[in-house]
Amino acid sequence: MTRSQSVRPFYRPMRPRSRDEPNRGATPLELFFDLCFVVAVSQAAGNLHHDVTAGHLGHALTRYLMVFFAIWWSWVNFTWFASAYDTDDDVYRITTLVQIAGALIIAAGVPRAFTGGDFSIITYGYVVMRLAAVVHWSRAAAGDPAHRRAARRYAIGVTVVQLGWLLRLALPEGWGTAAFLVLVLADLLVPAVAERPGMTPWHPGHITERYGLFTLIVLGDVVLNTSVAIQTGVDAGERQLWSLAAAATVIVFALWWLYFDRPIEAPDRLPYSLIWGYGHYLVFAAVAAVGAGLAVSVDHDRHLAHISGSTAGYAVAIPVAVFLLTVWVLHVRRQQHGAVVVAFPLVALLTLLTPLGPAPVYVVALLLAALVALTVLLRRRDVLPTAATAGDGPG
């Protein structure tokens, strides 16, 4: 490699990456992007925890889903763009760092959105991120003639929707939620419309790795928040929380196992890629909410929560059930067969019933452990005959 090839340029034309590029993995910039985003995820989950503990259930759910959309959608758009057009020149890095700054602004605005319904800071951060994305797409339109129409549609669509988000701040208070839903729909339609002239060259294997890595990061935030909540109780002399810590650990381990049980099938066609990519909103939001729910259970056991035991149980059971059903739709139902396909929705249903009885968190942990055990047994049943057949050849 010559010196000119090894030195990163300030600017290079934004050519498309190959969809068949071998050994395509996440870059340090993408990992840094994820790490900064988890700050916003942690803020959203932490505020959900405090609102549920205080008994503000409807308010907590609405605010959480709205805030998480801003976080998730900004992450999704960068991830798919980077998969297709990461040039790693200085201009690309600087533009991406501007997007990261927008993510930090979003994180700073989360408490105000929860406490007073003030989404202005989150909106400003979101617009910063999305307008930086317009710079990316404008570069792609200039550097990739084959996908120029799609890149221009992205740039124009994102710009128009951002104007809508800014105008929403000037609407009367009663119109805020309706306008939010309209703008969410508009944002979601941009990729569906833009990709119609021809799909941009995102890398299927790279995309599945990126989604898996972000799932890991959100799971890590669950571990951190739950550990801190339990540590606070134990430091106060409440030793009974050790058993709750064990149940929480089983739940987190099971969620990881069930998501990564088998190799994830990469999306390779537009309709399925949209369903797969959009469906992960529920995966990420549910995992982060599990962490909030476990922290609520700790508060309830410490008699600090203003809610009933069943409500504290639902704070864990509902996101776990949403996670199971979403993973079932996106992964299990498409790739597996037999008892495990039935087991996922069945365990989700049983999970929703656990708050009606005693010790719901412990029962949820047992149900998830049983589901993991079933997946392991069925996978071994599928693998062993294949291995035996492979060994039947001539010696």
TrEMBL record:
Keyword Membrane assigned: yes
Transmembrane feature ranges: 60-82, 94-115, 121-142, 240-260, 272-292, 312-330, 337-353, 359-378
Protein's recorded name: Low temperature requirement protein A
Entry superkingdom: Bacteria
Organism listed in the record: Micromonospora parastrephiae
Pfam families: LtrA
Region (Disordered) residue spans: 1-23
Lineage, uppermost ranks: Bacteria, Bacillati, Actinomycetota, Actinomycetes, Micromonosporales
Keyword field: Membrane, Transmembrane, Transmembrane helix
